[in-house]
Amino acid sequence: MFLDFYNLREQPFGVTPDPRYLYFSPGHREALASLFYGIETGRGFLSLVAEPGMGKTTLLFQLLQRWKGYVHSAFLFQTQCDSRELIRYLLDDLGLKSDGEDIVRMHSELNEFLYRETKAGRRVVVFIDEAQNLSDTVLETVRLLSDFEAPDKKLLQIILAGQPELEERLSRPGLAQLRQRIAIQSRLEPLPASEVVRYVGHRLEVAGYEGNELFTREAFALIAERSRGIPRLINNICFNALSLGCARQERQIDSDLVKEAARDLSIDAPFAQRTEQRRSLARPGRGLVPFARYTYGWLRDSLIRRRLFQTSAIVLLFGGMAIYVGARSGSGTLRQLNVRHPNSESTATATGSSLTDVPSGTALVQNSSGQAIPQNSPARNPAASYVYVVQPQDTLRDLCLSTLGRYDSAVLSKIRELNPGLKNPEHLHAGQEIRLPTSPTK
C-alpha cells in the first residue's frame, strides 16, 4: 500500500463520490451555483449534463450537503423502470408507505406529503441520476410530477442528471413539453491541462500530502493527455502510477510511470483516439459539441468579458468598415477613370500602358463602346475620339495608319482640332497624351 510510502492519511484517488474531494473547477462552481439558485427560487425542473466520470454525482451530493436541514430529498438511481416503479421508488425514498399497485393512490399520498412539507417550511427535492436511461413514457411521468404545485410556488423540485444522451433525448419533438419546463440547464466540461494539475494537487492536499511535488511537469502533461480531462480517468491513472512508484521505490512520479499506468489501464493514446472515433461515428456531430461549448466558454471567460478585448473588437469592427467603404469608393472611381479604346486593347496590354485622360473634377459620360470621356470634350460624340498615351518609338504617322488606315491632310487637320495644344504633331514624346479620332475623317 502506497499510503505510508508517500505519507498520505487516506486514499486521494478513490472511486466513491466523497464531497470533500470535489474540486471546484470554474465549470463545477458555475453548475453548483446554478442548481443552488434554481432550488432556492423554486424553478421546478433543473438539469445537469456531463460525460461519464466528470463528477456529476459528487456535485449533487455537495448540493445536498449545502441544503442539509432545509430540504427533504430523494435520490433515485434506479432508472431502468416503468412509471409505477418510479413512483414507488420515490415514495420509498421519501419514507412513505405504498402498496406499489394503485398509482392513483400513490399520487394522492405524494400530494398530501408535499403539502405537509410546504406548510412546515421545508422544500422537497428529487434527484434523478442517470436520467438518460428513462424511457419516454417515464419521462412524461416525471413531467407530470411538476403539476404538484400551490398557487404561488412549486411543491416539488426535480433535478435530472445524466450523460449527453439526455440532451439528445430532450431535444426530441415528443418531449418538447418537458424540455420547455427545464428552467436551468447546467453542464460539466472536461478539465483543461492547467485544471488537471490543480485537481490532482487538491486531492493530494485533502489526503494529507505535505512533501515535495509528487508528480513531475511532464507527468502532469501526460495525465491530462491520456485522461482527456475526465476526473475519473485522472483518478485511475494517478492511483496506478502511485502503485507502480511505490513498487519501484520512486519518490516522484515521472512520465514513464504515468505512461505505463495508462498502458495497464488500456487508455494509451491510440486507444483513446479509437474510443473517441467510435463514439463520434455512433453519434454523428457529438464530438464537436463539447469542444465547441468548451471553446466558447474559454473565449467568453478569458476574452469576451475582458474590457480590453471588448474595446479592441469595437475599434477593429469600425476600422474594418471604414476600410471596406473606402475600398468600394476607390474601386468605383477607378472604374470611371479606366478609359480604353476597343481597337487599341491589344496594344495597350502588350505595352502595359493605361489609356486615361481625365482631369480631376471632370464630369464623365460613356460612349457606345463603354468608354468614359469628359462631358465637355469634342469627343462626346460616341464615334469622335479617344485618348492615347504615347509610347517610345511611336510616331503620329504610324498611329494613324495602324488605327485609321490612312494618314493625310484631313486626318492631320482633325487631330489638330482634337488637340489644340499640340504644337508639332510630328514630334511626340513618350508619356504624352493625345486625342485621336475613332474613325477616318470623311
Q: Care to give the gist of this entry?
A:
The chain is α/β, with parallel strands linked by helices and 442 residues long.
Can you tell me about this structure?
There is one protein chain. A hairpin with a 5-residue loop joins strand 6 (364-366) and strand 7. Mean pLDDT is 78; it is low at 270-275, 277-290 and 333-383. This protein has 442 residues and is α/β, with parallel strands linked by helices. It is elongated, with a radius of gyration of 40 Å. A five-stranded parallel β-sheet has the order 2-3-4-1-5, with helices on both faces. A two-stranded antiparallel ribbon has the order 6-7. The chain has helices spanning 2-5, 26-40, 56-66, 83-93, 103-119, 136-145, 165-170, 176-181, 193-206, 217-227, 231-247, 255-264, 269-282, 288-304, 307-337, 345-351, 396-403, 409-418, and strands at 45-50, 71-76, 123-128, 157-162, 182-188, 364-366, 372-374, 385-389, 433-437. The protein has four domains: 2-12 and 192-302, Helicase, Ruva Protein, domain 3; 26-188, P-loop containing nucleotide triphosphate hydrolases (Rossmann fold, 3-Layer(aba) Sandwich); 306-336; 338-437, no CATH class.
What keyword list fits this structure?
alpha/beta; single chain; Rossmann fold; 4 domains; 442 residues; five-stranded parallel beta sheet
Secondary structure layout plus pairing:
Elements: H1 2-5, H2 26-40, E1 45-50, H3 56-66, E2 71-76, H4 83-93, H5 103-119, E3 123-128, H6 136-145, E4 157-162, H7 165-170, H8 176-181, E5 182-188, H9 193-206, H10 217-227, H11 231-247, H12 255-264, H13 269-282, H14 288-304, H15 307-337, H16 345-351, E6 364-366, E7 372-374, E8 385-389, H17 396-403, H18 409-418, E9 433-437
Parallel strand pairs: 1-4, 1-5, 2-3, 3-4
Antiparallel strand pairs: 6-7, 8-9
